[in-house]
Design goal:
single chain, 247 residues, 7-stranded parallel sheet, 7 helices, 14% strand, globular
């Protein structure tokens, strides 16, 4: 594993699912990890304790509503207060739900664009000076549907397309001191609220060349690679079992 010894990582939405896998993977590589959460306090506390049991004083947690204007400053400030530096930012937190054209309201725009694009942009902007001091990196969790929209999820697809554009734009703006890349997951962890019934899940797997879902650790491995690859920037790596070449 490429060592991240001495590095400090902030993972938004890091308490559960893919975010927790990223936190564990980067911590195992030697990094100190700050776990951001909004509602999953018990999960964040459990993960913080787990990581600190492996290596004392190597993990912390911070609660924040990412749509709040104060969130970027609060998150970066918490990293500096907890560990004295910030080397890697992983913009993982996301909101995902379907919405028909004709039913979109301003509140939906604020929630989907806000969590998937606006928050990552302003957190990245806040973090950039500290990341630049340390020749750090940003990794954004994008989506294969940034390139190929998912029917019924137009506003979500628009938000993730914006995040993909932001990834490339910030790679240009923040070079050469900060590298900015993205990971575009395919079918990794199904939503827990039943958005994809069994028939739709079967259809998705039928259009995935590898014929199965991936695991959160597949995403974490890609994040680890991009966080530690010194000559890679402005790239979005699809981790989707090949689905993006099929759909």
């Amino acid at each position: 594993m490429d060592s991240l010894d001495g590095k400090v990582v902030l993972v938004t939405g890091g308490a559960r699912r893919v975010g927790a896998a990223i936190a564990r993977r980067l911590h195992a590589a030697g990094a100190k990890v700050l776990i951001h959460y909004r509602d999953s306090e018990a999960d964040a506390a459990k993960l913080e304790s787990e990581l600190n049991a492996l290596r004392p004083r190597s993990a912390g947690k911070v609660k924040a509503e990412l749509l709040a204007p104060v969130a970027p400053r609060a998150l970066v400030g918490a990293a500096l207060e907890s560990f004295g530096r910030l080397d890697i930012l992983v913009n993982n937190a996301s909101t995902f739900f379907p919405l028909d054209v004709g039913a979109m309201e301003a509140s939906h725009w604020e929630e989907l664009i806000g969590s998937n694009l606006r928050a990552p942009l302003f957190i990245s902007q806040q973090a950039a000076p500290e990341l630049a001091k340390n020749e750090g990196a940003i990794v954004n969790i994008v989506d294969i549907h940034a390139e190929r929209p998912l029917k019924g999820y137009a506003l979500y697809s628009i938000a993730k397309a914006g995040l993909a554009a932001m990834t490339r734009a910030l790679a240009l703006e923040l070079a050469p001191r900060v590298r900015v890349n993205g990971v575009a997951p395919g079918a990794i962890a199904w939503p827990e609220d039943g958005q994809f019934p069994d028939a739709e899940r079967a259809r998705i797997l039928a259009t995935t060349p590898l014929g199965r879902t991936g695991s959160p650790d597949d995403i974490a491995r890609a994040v680890h690679f991009l966080a530690s690859a010194p000559f890679v920037t402005g790239q979005i790596l699809a981790v989707d079992g090949g689905r993006s070449i099929f759909i």
